[in-house]
């Protein structure tokens, strides 16, 4: 994904099990943030930070959706456990992660494996990518994304 690209086609599944197309989100600014795994320390903090700012995102007309490859059932438990107010969506087959280029080779303790790179994409109401953050550090990130939205 590069600045100026349009929102790719793809289907995600909401935490309640309802499938939806990315195209259904057209007509409003959209923040898609990708995170590796629900209910882990960094991913929980990121979801809490976006949730804490959810009303401010809504006030600017923006939808915020967190995407991982976790099952919808796991996402629902995650949202309930931490009282999250942003929408979480499942990309179990990884097709949306692939379209955004966030399914990457990672390394931990000298071992290579495939996983989601923490990344965020901001689209305008017309579906054009206007900002992106790759290899995100959680601290202060949600606020930085909010500040990139027009007020």
Note the topology:
Layout: E1 11-14, E2 19-21, E3 30-34, H1 41-52, H2 54-59, E4 63-68, H3 72-81, E5 87-90, H4 95-100, E6 103-108, E7 111-116, E8 119-123, E9 129-133, H5 141-148
Parallel strand pairs: 3-4, 4-5
Antiparallel strand pairs: 1-2, 1-5, 3-8, 6-7, 8-9
Structural features, described:
- The chain has 151 residues and is of the alpha+beta class.
- The chain has a single domain (27-148), classed as Glutaredoxin.
- The protein has helices at residues 41-52, 54-59, 72-81, 95-100, 141-148; strands at residues 11-14, 19-21, 30-34, 63-68, 87-90, 103-108, 111-116, 119-123, 129-133.
- The strands form two sheets. The protein has a seven-stranded mixed sheet with strand order 2-1-5-4-3-8-9. Strands 6-7 form a two-stranded antiparallel sheet.
- The longest helix is centred in the first third of the chain and has 12 residues, at 41-52.
Summarize the model shown.
The protein has five helices and nine strands.
Main pleated sheet? 7 strands, mixed
| Low-pLDDT runs | none
SS strand fraction? 25-35%
Element-level helix/strand string:
EEEHHEHEHEEEEH
Number of spatially distinct domains: 1
Mean pLDDT comes to 94
The named CATH superfamily: Glutaredoxin
The value of Rg in angstroms is 14 Å
The geometry reads as globular
Task: Supply the CATH architecture.
Answer: 3-Layer(aba) Sandwich
Distance between the termini: 25 Å
Strand runs, count: 9
Fraction of helical residues: 25-40%
- Structural class of the helix and strand makeup? alpha+beta
